[in-house]
């Protein structure tokens, strides 16, 4: 439940609710929830940062066989964050993490063997580690990606919109919506694409996507027809899976010479969706789409020649089409090129080239993003350093004694309470929320408390 809320959450309140659910589940011994809480403690999600507590939790999780914990401990050891800088220990953690199924540990070990970091440089071992990650990603990709959507580009009239912006400004969106309602076909298709995949800050909305595609298709847009075919082929709430409807719209687009429509018809014949399996027809449609430069069709041709699906195996032709598709960034084409270089199939074997191709494939699928995130400087809190700096401040100036006294009171109280509440995540979460609310006014709170105690003592003295 917590994971679902976190994925769908758009407000701080919803995220807070998700972490409260994680905390309750962690108190009941749920390992996945404990991993979430350990990550929250490490990265300081919602003010929860406590490196020492995160390490203790990761160590207890590692004993239970958590590969995520092994990977995190490897990272912390390799950078000396919260624990001794120890590359040999980090290597052990990464090895256990990779054995347990951590894709990130596999990535890190691959990089270490490729670059010779605390291990002997060995391209073959690096290639093997990268292969496991690439195979995992490619398997998921092949199951889920029938007709990948092009990178969304609004028409030339979006020149006022920053090309680097990932958020479509609300005023600009209203302007494009106005143009779409006035009958601008290109804008209709672009807005349909944006809603189809949920880009530039717009929610994924299949109903709005279908609405704009249908308007554009009615005006004669072949791209819109092809995307409607894609929606019905894959199935969603607005367009339930229907091979016959997909065939209809792909055919309408293909009749206009549209590459996406031609590729869609090729897929229907290749997999036998709504029509009998016919590799000859599939080959014909893929070739027509490939001639128009559609990279997914080029990849499909390469795959047919690579696997011998309906044609004689021809690794030279497979390499040719994989290469053409890879030039446009088609991820699976890059994956198969890496396979060919790794095994020397249809091309001179090259470990280094195979590694480069696999890394390119993984970057395309954003597989290394977590590693980059871990590599950034994180604003970790260090209670021991804070104590030392407070002592130095008190020694430097007599005027600092009183503020240092209050600061140390807060520091020691927080440290004591965090230690007491370490294994009670729900109580810890509630305390952190209180600390975030009271923290900025801690000195006033303590002064008020001291004054109240003095008044109480003076009152009792006169009685």
Question: In a nutshell, what does this entry contain?
Answer:
This protein has 463 residues and is mainly alpha-helical. The chain is built from 24 helices and no strands.
Give the uncertain stretches in residue-range form: 146-166, 367-383, 419-424
| pLDDT averaged over residues | 77
Distance between the termini: 58 Å
**Largest sheet, described in full?**
none
Q: How many DSSP H or I helices?
A: 24
Derived from helix and strand composition plus strand pairing, the structural class reads: mainly alpha
N to C succession of SSEs: HHHHHHHHHHHHHHHHHHHHHHHH
Helix fraction? Answer: over 70%
Using the alpha-carbon principal axes, give the shape.
Answer: extended
Radius of gyration: 29 Å
Strand tally is 0
Please state roughly what percent of the residues sit in beta strands, choosing from under 5%, 5-15%, 15-25%, 25-35%, 35-45% or over 45%: under 5%
């Amino acid at each position: 439940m917590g994971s679902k809320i976190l994925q769908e959450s758009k407000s701080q309140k919803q995220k807070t609710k998700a972490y409260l659910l994680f905390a309750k589940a962690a108190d009941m011994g749920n390992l996945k929830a404990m991993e979430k809480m350990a990550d929250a403690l490490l990265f300081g999600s919602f003010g929860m940062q406590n490196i020492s507590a995160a390490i203790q939790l990761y160590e207890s999780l590692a004993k239970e066989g958590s590969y995520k914990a092994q990977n995190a401990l490897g990272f912390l050891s390799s950078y000396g964050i919260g624990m001794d800088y120890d590359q040999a220990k980090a290597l052990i953690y990464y090895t256990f993490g990779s054995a347990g199924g951590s894709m990130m540990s596999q990535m890190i070990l691959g990089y270490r063997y490729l670059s010779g970091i605390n291990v002997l440089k060995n391209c073959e071992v690096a290639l093997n580690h990268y292969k496991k990650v690439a195979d995992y990603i490619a398997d998921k990709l092949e199951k889920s990606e029938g007709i990948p959507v092009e990178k969304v580009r609004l028409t030339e009239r979006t020149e006022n919109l920053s090309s680097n912006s990932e958020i479509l400004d609300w005023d600009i969106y209203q302007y494009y919506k106005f143009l779409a309602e006035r009958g601008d076909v290109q804008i209709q298709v672009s807005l349909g694409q944006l809603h189809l995949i949920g880009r530039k800050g717009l929610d994924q909305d299949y109903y709005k996507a279908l609405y704009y595609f249908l308007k554009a298709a009615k005006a004669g847009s072949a791209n819109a027809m092809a995307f409607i075919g894609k929606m019905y082929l894959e199935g969603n709430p607005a367009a339930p899976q229907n091979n016959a409807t997909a065939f209809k719209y792909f055919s309408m687009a293909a009749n206009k010479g549209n590459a996406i429509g031609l590729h869609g018809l090729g897929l229907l014949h290749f997999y036998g969706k709504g029509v009998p399996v016919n590799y000859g027809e599939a080959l014909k449609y893929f070739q027509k789409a490939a001639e128009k430069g559609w990279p997914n069709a080029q990849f499909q041709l390469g795959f047919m020649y690579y696997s011998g699906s309906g044609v004689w195996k021809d690794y030279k032709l497979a390499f040719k089409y994989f290469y053409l598709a890879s030039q446009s960034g088609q991820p699976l084409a890059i994956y198969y090129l890496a396979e060919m270089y790794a095994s020397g199939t249809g091309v001179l074997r090259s470990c280094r080239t195979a590694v480069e191709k696999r890394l390119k494939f993984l970057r395309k699928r954003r597989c290394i993003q977590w590693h980059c995130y871990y590599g950034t400087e994180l604003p970790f809190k260090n209670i021991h350093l804070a104590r030392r700096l407070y002592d130095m401040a008190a020694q430097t100036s007599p005027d600092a004694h009183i503020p240092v006294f209050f600061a140390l009171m807060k520091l020691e109280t927080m440290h004591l309470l965090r230690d007491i509440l370490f294994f009670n995540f729900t109580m810890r979460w509630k305390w952190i929320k209180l600390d975030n609310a009271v923290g900025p006014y801690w000195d006033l709170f303590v002064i008020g408390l001291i004054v109240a105690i003095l008044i109480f003592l003076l009152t009792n003295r006169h009685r």
